[in-house]
């Protein structure tokens, strides 16, 4: 495991259109950080070409956002949910229950591993964006939810109060919009991803799933500087369809984590996305290079650890 660091600096949030104050960088050298039971720990799990994020709040409450998976066209029986996500969650000392489980959207590289998660853990509440999707792995996930009688619902903008992660942790949901789903876009399923922000005291994380340009620009205009976050899960694995400048100028991430598989057939992450992230001052981590990326924060400052 590698522990990496940069010094504390101030980052201008220029271009956010909302006149917000400069976003203060809160990452510190690991030698200056003392881990404790009061930390929130966020793990960007290396599931190959997919996405899976585990959030452990100081209260002991937990959230899993996506669980990786293999699209049907890959014709592979390998299950990242069973082989990677379940063992990783258990390695964190979580054996019985996940309080909240979310899928950003129905595509197999996000929902395919959920069947294993559902059958291996008690789940407090399961949320998806509610966008109708016909993929096989998504249907299998719903069948598992029904078989296990899991409490299930939809999560849309303004419903962050449905997720209670305990004291000092604030959850906001910015997309999909409360009254419509995107239509006629490059991928309506991607653009209907759950965009969620989790803030522990002064340190915040933003997870946009596979949100693409249409959804990003809508959210940038609708929510502006409310999107500001210290740590960003980079949308759509670093595709050229995401990481637009209007969106990134609102988020102004200090750290950007790209969930991406090694030598993937899509060429992710694309140069366009990488350049935009660099232009807003984000330091980039990639699960194909760094393995699982884990962030510890006491709510005032944070450190980043990488598996490789």
Comma- or semicolon-separated keywords:
globular; 17 strands; 6-stranded mixed beta sheet; alpha/beta; 9 helices; single chain; 308 residues; Metallo-beta-lactamase, Chain A
Question: Layout of SSEs?
Answer:
Blueprint: E1 2-4, E2 10-11, E3 23-24, E4 40-44, E5 53-56, E6 62-65, H1 80-91, E7 97-102, H2 108-111, H3 114-120, E8 122-128, H4 136-148, E9 152-154, E10 169-175, H5 188-191, E11 195-200, E12 203-207, H6 213-223, E13 231-233, H7 245-251, E14 255-258, H8 271-279, E15 283-286, H9 287-290, E16 293-297, E17 302-306
Parallel strand pairs: 6-7, 7-8, 8-9, 12-13, 13-14, 14-15
Antiparallel strand pairs: 1-17, 2-3, 4-5, 4-16, 5-6, 10-11, 11-12, 16-17
Helix pairs in contact: 1-3, 3-4, 6-7
Rg, rounded, reads 18 Å
Instruction: Please report the total strand number as a whole number.
Output: 17
- The CATH homologous superfamily corresponds to Ribonuclease Z/Hydroxyacylglutathione hydrolase-like
The CATH class name reads Alpha Beta
The H/E string reads EEEEEEHEHHEHEEHEEHEHEHEHEE
What spatial form do the alpha-carbon principal axes imply? globular
C-alpha termini separation: 5 Å
Whole-number average pLDDT? 91
* CATH-assigned fold name: Metallo-beta-lactamase, Chain A
Number of helices: 9
Largest sheet: 9 strands, mixed
Strand order of the largest sheet: 1-17-16-4-5-6-7-8-9
Multimeric state = single chain
Unreliable stretches covering 5 or more consecutive residues: 3-21
């Amino acid at each position: 495991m590698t522990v990496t660091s940069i010094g504390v600096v101030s980052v201008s949030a220029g271009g956010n259109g909302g006149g917000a104050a400069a976003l203060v960088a809160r990452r510190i050298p690991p030698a200056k950080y003392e881990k404790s039971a009061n930390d929130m720990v966020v793990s960007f799990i290396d599931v190959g070409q997919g996405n899976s994020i585990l959030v452990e709040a100081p209260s002991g409450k937990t959230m899993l956002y996506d669980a990786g998976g293999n699209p049907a066209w890959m014709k592979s029986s390998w299950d990242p949910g069973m082989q990677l996500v379940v063992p990783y969650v258990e390695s964190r000392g979580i054996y019985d229950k996940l309080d909240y489980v979310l899928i950003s959207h129905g595509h197999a590289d996000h929902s395919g591993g959920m069947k294993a998660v559902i059958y291996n853990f008690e789940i407090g509440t399961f949320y998806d964006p509610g966008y109708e999707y016909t993929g096989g792995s998504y249907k299998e996930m719903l069948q598992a939810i029904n078989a296990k009688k899991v409490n299930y619902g939809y999560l849309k903008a303004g419903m962050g109060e449905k997720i209670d992660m305990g004291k000092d942790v604030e959850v906001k949901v910015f997309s999909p919009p409360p009254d419509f789903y995107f239509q006629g876009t490059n991928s309506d399923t991607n653009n209907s991803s759950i965009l969620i922000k989790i803030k522990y005291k002064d340190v915040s994380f933003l997870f946009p799933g596979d949100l693409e340009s249409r959804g990003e620009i809508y959210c940038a205009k609708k929510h502006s500087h409310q999107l500001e976050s210290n740590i960003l899960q980079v949308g759509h694995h670093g595709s050229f369809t995401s990481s637009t400048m209007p969106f990134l100028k609102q988020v102004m991430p200090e750290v950007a984590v790209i969930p991406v598989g090694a030598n993937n057939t899509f060429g992710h992450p694309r140069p366009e996305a990488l350049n935009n992230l660099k232009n807003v001052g984000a330091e980039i981590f990639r699960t194909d290079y760094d393995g699982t990326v884990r962030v510890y924060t006491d709510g005032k400052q944070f450190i980043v650890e990488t598996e490789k």
